Every structure is written in C-alpha cells, then in structure tokens.
C-alpha cells in the first residue's frame, strides 16, 4: 500500500524523534497522584468518550425498549441524588470531626496556658499536631498514595480524558476522608475544600462502576453506566457536589465544575449537576439543624459552613473603588508569585520524596514541628491589649474560638496575634471577616501573620497527606485584605472585614484564575449579595494581572505531576503545522478477518488503544478503511476464544456469542492486560472476524488539516483516536492513527 511508501520516506527523518518517543514509552511514568509524593510509577490510560458505532452495539441498542430507556434516565437521576446525599454527609462529617478534634486540642492547651504551664502546653500542642500529621501521612503513603494532595488536578485530568490507577478507588476515598480530617486538625496550613472535590468525584465514580464482581455486588441496571461517557458526567457532578459540601455553596459548586475542572459541558449535564448540588445543600441544612441543639460537640461554633458574619447593610461609594482596584492588582501579583514559589517547592519535595517513604514521612514531620513552633511561638511577640468595652463578644475568649484569645495575657486583656495563630484556619477566617472589628488587630500582628501564613501555605502543600489550597488562599488573602484596609485608614469607608473578603477573592483569582465560581462561592460564604460588584471587579483585575506572569495553580500542578492535558486553546505555532507533520510510523493495522497470533503480537509490542481495520479482497472490491477497533474489545475477543478455523467471515450472530456486559468497562484505573491471556499454539493460528466489533464511523481527517483544528476537535468532541488519511481518494493510503494515548499526537503538542 502507499502507506508503506510514505513511512519509508519519512523513516530516516523520524528515527531520532522516534527513538525518544520509544524511550518515553518504555520509561517509568511518574503520573498525577504519585509524582509529587514520590510513590511507585504507574501507567496512564486514555478514556474513550466517543460513541462506539459497531454492528454489535447497534443491535444491542435496538433490542432495548422504552422500559430500558426509562430505567436509564431514572438511574441517572437516582445516582445524582445519591452522590449529593453522600457528598453532603461526608462534608458535614469532615467539619464535625475537625471542629471537635481541633477543639479538644486547643481547649486542653488553653487550660495549661491558664495554669501557666507553658512548656507542657507547647508539648501537648506540638505533640498532638505531630501525631495527627504523621497519622495522615502514614496511611496515605502506605495505603493510598493517590489520596495525597487536593486531588483537583487528578479530577481535572480525568475529565480531560486521562485515567490513572486508584485515583477513584474505595481505598483512596477512605484515606482521603480520614487523612484530610487528621491533616486539617493538625494545624497545618491546608484546607479540606480541595480534598472534598476529590472525595465527591470518588463517590460518583464508585457509584457509577456498576457494582463489584469481586464482592458479588452487581446489578443489571448499572451496566448502562459501564462506559466512560456516563462516568464522566457522574464525576463532574461529584466534583461540583464536593465544592458545594465544603462551602455550602451549591451554585458555586456547579460553576466550579464548569469553569475549573470540566473540559466538556452540555445543558443536560448542567441540570443534573445543579440537582446534585441542591441535594447537598438540603442534606447539610438538615444535619446542621440537628447540631444546633448541642448534640455535636464543638461543631457549630466555627467551621467552614457559612461565614455569615458581615454587615447586612454593607455600603460603599465611589471613593472605595481605588482601594478595590489596588486589592485586585496586589492579589494578581501575590497570586502569581504564590504559584511560582509553590512550583519550586513542589519540585524540591519531589526530589526528596523520590528517595523513599522514610524521607516522605521525615518531610511531613519536619513541616509539622516547624508549623507548631510558628503557631505557638510567634504570638509571644505581640503585646497584650485591653479588651474593648463596646464588644458584645466575651473578652478574653478562653478555651473556644473567638477574636480575643487570652494566651499569656493577664485578665481582661487579649493577644490579637494569638487570635490568628492559635486557632483553626476556619475560625481565623471568621475572625478576619468579622464586621465592626477595625480596632481589634494591630498592623504589626496582621503583617506578621500574613507573611507567615503565606509561606506556611506553600510549604504545607505537597506533603504525603490529603491537603487543599482553597482555605490557605482564603486565609492569606483575608489577612492582606484587612492589612490594606488598615493602611487605607480614612481614605475608604469600607469595613476592614469587607476588605478581608475582597482580599480573599483577589488572591483566589490571582492564584487559581477562577472568576465566576469564586465570585459566587464568596457571596454564598458570606451571605452578602451587596458585595457582588466589588468582588467582580477585584476578581477580573487580579486574574488579568496574574495571567501576564504564569498559569493557574492547578494547570501548573497538572504539568508537574506528569499528567497529559489538552488545553482549551491551540498555540499559534500549531496553525503552521498539519497533522501529517506530527504522525509517526509504522502504522499498525488489522484486517477485517485477522489471525489471532498477529493480534497478540501487536497488542504486546504496542501501547495503542485503537487500531484501524482495513478490508481487502476477497472481503471488498478494493482496499478500504472499514473502521477502528479498540484494544479493550480485542482483549475481550481473545478471552472468549470464539475463534474461526479459516480466514472467512463468521456466519454466527455475534449477539449469540457475546453480551453487552462482556464489553462493559471495568472500574476506573482497572483494565485487562494481554499478558494475562494465555493461548495455545493451535489457537494462535486461528482467526477472528473483527467486523461486528469495529467502529465503522471513526473520526477521520485529511492530512492537510492544521494541528490547531485537530486539537480543538480532540478536546471539544472528547476523542480517543483520530485517523489521518491522505487527500487522494484511495483509502488504502491511510497515513497514520493519531492516538489519544499520548504516544504520537499529544507528545508533539
């Protein structure tokens, strides 16, 4: 065929590049969840979001009546309801556990401070933090390395078309929840919002896997969801539910899934995601009402459920616009610098973690001790201040959250720096957001806390433990926002608590580059719609400023973790290249009736997940492209051993030999391997008729298409494979198969 000639002409030019490609394929791949924590390497698998149109699946769909369609639709909504209910319950449980564990720790430490047993107080505080940190690190390192970090980069990559082992497994879910509670309770500068996104996605993925054959938990109905398209929709709903559960922000959760993690969206998915988030809000409301009766320990006296602490009549004037613009500019600069420093720190952590589990745990222990020393030691630098007489809140607040921590001060005095350091991150944010507290904090205390929290948030992320970036950024942004409010003095009429809210928005926009979702989340957190214009202004400015320096934090982490990712836009140089410029050979193809031995050889010697199927005489008048067959389907055919003794079309109806369940995809990260299939010498000489299982309508483009257009087609349609054919009319001159397994197409982007 002409393909051989094309390959022969380009072979010499591509030999060096192909050698590098082969090295990358054969080398270990430090993927997403394991790259930063230095765990063992694992392969990456692409997801097939394209509808498979072959004779077998067409016949299966035609056999389904209206009852099957009704079951399918009912099951979709039922699973969305379950995802929302479970995500809301887990979010509530996380807050309940953190508030009580951290609350007991601070109460015990405060009692020792009252008794002037400062040494013992520090020992209890640092010791409990150390134990909690090491517990989170040990279970993550040994049980589920995929649970480390926030998990948002993994979810984002999955929705972009990449699957890696164990990112959504049940073990990862359990470790994510338990480890997050321990890590946040240990006073590390980490949050639980990011892990909640991963948790919601895990719940959705597990529910959509169709049960477990291993534990005999299967249901005939759930087989409808054993495909990547439906699981992608469920994971998207789960990610939005995670944000809704973390902040009690249902609309913000839906917008977060749309703006930040999803690569593909449609109106029906928006409706289901909104329904899922609404279920989260209802569940949280019901559970919180139960706790208001005092049956949940310390829960309800803090916690990142809703910071309903701002003034109901927030007023601002034209004179307040310059300070808001200044906040946006500073937030963009600080956010981009935050991303820059975090990228460097994570690279250093990666070098340390690669040395082994002991080094990972040693790093976590070091950061825990350093953090405890900062939180307990720095408040001693602040002077005691007399309690204000016009405050309705008790002063000093002993053994609980509040703006007036006594720490080492005498009666009727408080330590404003201790109110920031010696508290949970959530309670500190509440203190900074509080209205009518302009004179509570000193400039020096706010400045010292800002610098410390800024860098503690950076060094705390990347440890081998579940940790998020949302809350540290909210906390740090609130601190510098209040500092700007103090420096403005009489030049602005805004309350310092409102400055803190705008500061949080600006730093989130500068680091994460989210606008709409962050705006809505901030408004739902503070329950103050009057701030909408200022929050919008600050976010737009901070994102614009930060975009001139570097990418958003999640894109940087995706790249750092080794996750292949297709951007939403094409680079300018891609318009100067065609798809024929980036394809590689030789092309691996199958015939419509193929020898078993040839199939086994190709599957063992290549890593592609799709192969073109060519029909030649006597099965067609001339060589013709029949379609594309998936590796997963070939493995099913080999396992079932329905072989032919001669090279001829099968005269048996495929539906009598196979069922749709045979081709249903297994759970996330689980896949069959050709190495697990053993065939006899006699079977290797037999044949398989691939026609009933070949997708007869794969996406095909001509070789002159620009690389930019091919990229957009890949991302917008969610393709796994793209066939490139020459402009000549002879389909036998097939040029190459671009595979979204990141072996040809993605490596050249």
Structure description:
This protein has 749 residues and is mainly alpha-helical. It is built from 26 helices and 14 strands. It has helices spanning 2-26, 32-35, 55-62, 66-114, 118-143, 152-160, 170-185, 193-207, 228-247, 250-261, 267-295, 321-353, 357-377, 416-421, 425-433, 443-460, 470-488, 496-512, 516-526, 532-547, 553-560, 596-605, 631-640, 654-657, 681-684, 707-717; strands spanning 45-46, 162-163, 211-212, 217-218, 385-386, 413-414, 590-591, 593-595, 610-615, 624-630, 687-689, 700-702, 721-725, 736-739. The strands form six sheets. The chain has a three-stranded mixed β-sheet with strand order 7-9-10. A three-stranded mixed β-sheet has the order 12-13-14, with no helix packed on it. The chain has a two-stranded antiparallel sheet with strand order 1-2. A hairpin with a 4-residue loop joins strand 3 (211-212) and strand 4. Helix 13 (357-377) packs antiparallel against helix 16 (443-460). The chain is elongated. This is Chloride channel-like protein CLC-g isoform X2.
In short:
This protein is mainly alpha-helical. It has helices spanning 2-26, 32-35, 55-62, 66-114, 118-143, 152-160, 170-185, 193-207, 228-247, 250-261, 267-295, 321-353, 357-377, 416-421, 425-433, 443-460, 470-488, 496-512, 516-526, 532-547, 553-560, 596-605, 631-640, 654-657, 681-684, 707-717, and strands at residues 45-46, 162-163, 211-212, 217-218, 385-386, 413-414, 590-591, 593-595, 610-615, 624-630, 687-689, 700-702, 721-725, 736-739.
Topology:
Layout: H1 2-26, H2 32-35, E1 45-46, H3 55-62, H4 66-114, H5 118-143, H6 152-160, E2 162-163, H7 170-185, H8 193-207, E3 211-212, E4 217-218, H9 228-247, H10 250-261, H11 267-295, H12 321-353, H13 357-377, E5 385-386, E6 413-414, H14 416-421, H15 425-433, H16 443-460, H17 470-488, H18 496-512, H19 516-526, H20 532-547, H21 553-560, E7 590-591, E8 593-595, H22 596-605, E9 610-615, E10 624-630, H23 631-640, H24 654-657, H25 681-684, E11 687-689, E12 700-702, H26 707-717, E13 721-725, E14 736-739
Parallel strand pairs: 7-9, 12-13
Antiparallel strand pairs: 1-2, 3-4, 5-6, 8-11, 9-10, 13-14
Helix pairs in contact: 4-5, 4-7, 4-8, 4-9, 4-11, 5-7, 5-13, 6-21, 7-8, 8-9, 9-10, 9-11, 10-11, 10-19, 12-18, 12-20, 12-21, 13-16, 15-17, 16-17, 17-18, 18-19, 18-20, 19-20
């Amino acid at each position: 065929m002409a393909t051989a000639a094309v390959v022969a002409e380009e072979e010499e030019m591509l030999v060096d590049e192909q050698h590098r490609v082969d090295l990358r394929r054969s080398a270990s791949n430090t993927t997403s969840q394991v790259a930063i924590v230095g765990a063992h390497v694992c392969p990456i698998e692409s997801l097939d979001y394209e509808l498979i149109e072959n004779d077998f699946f067409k016949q299966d769909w035609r056999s389904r009546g209206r009852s099957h369609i009704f079951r399918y639709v009912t099951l979709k909504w039922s699973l969305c309801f379950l995802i929302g209910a479970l995500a809301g319950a887990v979010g509530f449980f996380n807050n309940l556990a953190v508030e009580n564990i951290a609350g007991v720790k601070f109460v015990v430490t405060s009692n020792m401070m009252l008794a002037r047993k400062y040494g013992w107080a520090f020992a209890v505080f640092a010791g409990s933090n150390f134990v909690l940190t090491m517990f989170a690190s040990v279970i993550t390192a040994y049980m589920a390395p995929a649970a480390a970090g926030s998990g948002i980069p993994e979810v984002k990559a999955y929705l972009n078309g990449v699957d890696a082992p164990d990112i959504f497994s049940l073990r990862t879910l359990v470790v994510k929840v338990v480890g997050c509670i321990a890590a946040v309770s240990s006073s590390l500068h980490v949050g639980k919002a990011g892990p909640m996104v991963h948790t919601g996605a895990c719940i959705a993925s597990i529910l959509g896997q169709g049960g477990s054959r291993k534990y005999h938990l299967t249901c005939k109905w759930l087989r409808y969801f054993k495909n990547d398209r439906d699981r992608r929709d469920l994971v998207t709903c789960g990610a939005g539910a995670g944000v809704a559960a973390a902040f009690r922000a249902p609309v913000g959760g839906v917008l977060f899934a749309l703006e930040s993690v999803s690569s593909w969206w449609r109106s029906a998915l928006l409706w289901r995601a909104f329904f899922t988030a609404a279920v989260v809000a209802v569940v949280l409301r019901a559970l919180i009402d139960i706790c208001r009766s005092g049956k949940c320990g310390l829960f309800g006296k803090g916690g990142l459920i809703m910071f309903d602490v701002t003034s109901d009549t927030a007023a601002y004037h034209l004179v307040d616009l310059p300070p808001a613009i200044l906040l946006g500019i500073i937030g963009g600069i600080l956010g981009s610098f935050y991303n820059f420093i975090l990228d460097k720190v994570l690279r250093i952590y990666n070098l340390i973690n690669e040395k082994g589990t002991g080094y990972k745990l040693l790093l976590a222990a070091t950061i825990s001790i350093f953090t405890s020393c900062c939180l307990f030691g720095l408040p001693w630098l602040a002077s005691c201040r007399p309690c204000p007489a016009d405050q309705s809140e008790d002063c000093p607040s002993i053994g609980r959250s509040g703006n007036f921590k006594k720490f080492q001060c005498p009666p009727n005095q408080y330590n404003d720096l201790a109110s920031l350091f010696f508290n949970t991150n959530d309670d500190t944010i509440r203190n900074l957001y509080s209205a009518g507290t302009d004179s509570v904090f000193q400039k020096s205390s706010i400045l010292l806390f800002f610098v410390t929290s800024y860098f503690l948030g950076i060094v705390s992320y990347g440890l081998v433990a579940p940790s998020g970036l949302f809350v540290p950024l909210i906390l740090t942004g609130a601190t510098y926002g209040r500092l700007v409010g103090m420096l403005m003095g009489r030049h602005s009429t805004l309350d310092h608590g409102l400055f803190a809210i705008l500061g949080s928005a600006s730093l989130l926009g500068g680091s994460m580059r989210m606008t709409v979702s962050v705006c809505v989340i901030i408004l739902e957190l503070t329950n103050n719609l009057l701030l909408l214009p200022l929050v919008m202004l600050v976010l737009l400015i901070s994102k614009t400023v930060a975009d001139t320096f570097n990418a958003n934090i999640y894109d940087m982490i995706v790249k750092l973790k080794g996750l292949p990712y297709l951007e939403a836009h094409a680079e300018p140089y891609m318009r100067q290249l065609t798809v024929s410029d980036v394809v590689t050979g030789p092309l691996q193809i199958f015939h419509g009736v193929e020898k078993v031995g040839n199939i086994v050889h190709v599957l063992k010697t290549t890593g592609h997940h799709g192969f073109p199927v060519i029909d030649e005489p006597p099965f067609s008048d001339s060589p013709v492209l029949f379609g594309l067959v998936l590796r997963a389907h070939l493995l099913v055919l080999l396992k079932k051993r329905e072989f032919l003794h001669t090279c001829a079309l099968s005269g048996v109806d495929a539906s009598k030999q196979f069922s749709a369940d045979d081709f249903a995809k297994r759970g996330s990260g689980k896949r069959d391997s050709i190495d697990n299939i053993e065939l006899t010498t006699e079977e290797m000489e037999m044949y398989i008729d691939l026609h009933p299982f070949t997708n007869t309508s794969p996406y095909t483009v001509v070789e002159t298409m620009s690389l930019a257009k091919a990229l957009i087609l890949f991302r917008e349609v969610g393709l796994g494979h793209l066939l490139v054919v020459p402009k000549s009319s002879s389909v036998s001159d097939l040029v190459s198969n671009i595979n979204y397994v990141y072996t040809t197409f993605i490596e050249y982007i």
